[in-house]
Design a protein that fits this description.
Blueprint: H1 5-12, H2 21-60, H3 65-86, E1 91-93, E2 97-99, E3 103-108, E4 111-116, H4 122-150, H5 157-187, E5 191-192, H6 194-219
Antiparallel strand pairs: 1-2, 1-5, 2-3, 3-4
Helix pairs in contact: 3-4, 3-6, 4-5, 5-6
């Protein structure tokens, strides 16, 4: 008696070969290794392209002594503006009290302790806003300066206008602070701090830099 058909079909079906587990692990490892290599290769190519672009841009910059001075002054002004805005020394009382735009610092036994304002005076908000805007304008002015000395067709008037706006905003901030604290600074031991005076110095540097830029454009 012959075997049933379904048994014959089942018995004649070739057995499925199993891949060794070690081979599968090695294949996955090779895929991951290849993926990492591609990632690092792409990062390297991106870095190389970026470096090449920056290097080409740098080579196209047309420098002279005046422009180097302007570059240094703009970086210096940016740093000073940040310090003026953040440092707590707009008002000063001996070594025991300092007041800034964001906090008040007092001398204690262990050193200096600073406190944030519970509520800012109304005029502080105007000063803070103007100084923060001026800080944000500096990078834009510096980027324009770099493109201006690369492409001689770019006029310097936009750069000088931007610096003038920064200077005017700083002057307004200092004037508002002076108007609200002049009586205190003249009729009491409290005096204006070094941050306040650095603000005025930065204004002078700002307008002076604008003049130098116009001079360079006219005689270069």
């Amino acid at each position: 008696m012959g075997k049933p058909a379904f048994i014959t079909n089942f018995s004649n079906k070739p057995a499925k070969q199993q891949r060794p587990s070690g081979s599968r692990t090695q294949t996955n490892h090779n895929k991951k290794k290849s993926s990492f290599q591609e990632t690092f290769t792409n990062i390297g190519e991106t870095f190389s392209t970026t470096f090449s672009s920056v290097n080409n841009f740098r080579k196209k910059l047309i420098w002279n002594r005046i422009r180097l001075v302007v570059c240094v002054l703009m970086i210096l002004m940016f740093i000073v503006q940040i310090v003026v805005t953040a440092a707590p020394s707009w008002l000063h009382l001996s070594d025991s009290y300092e007041q800034g735009l964001w906090k008040v610092c007092t001398q204690v036994e262990d050193g200096t302790e600073c406190f944030s304002y519970n509520k800012f005076p109304g005029y502080f908000k105007v000063i803070q806003a103007l100084l923060i805007i001026s800080i944000l304008l500096y990078p834009l002015a510096f980027i324009y300066f770099l493109y201006m000395i690369q492409r001689t067709t770019w006029p310097p008037f936009l750069l000088t206008a931007c610096l003038a706006v920064i200077g005017i905003f700083t002057v307004i901030s200092l004037a508002v602070f002076t108007d609200n604290n002049l009586t205190t600074a003249t009729a009491s031991p409290v005096t204006f701090g070094w941050t306040y005076y650095f603000g005025w110095i930065n204004v002078l540097i700002c307008f002076g830099t604008s003049t130098i830029i116009l001079y360079d454009h006219r005689y270069t």
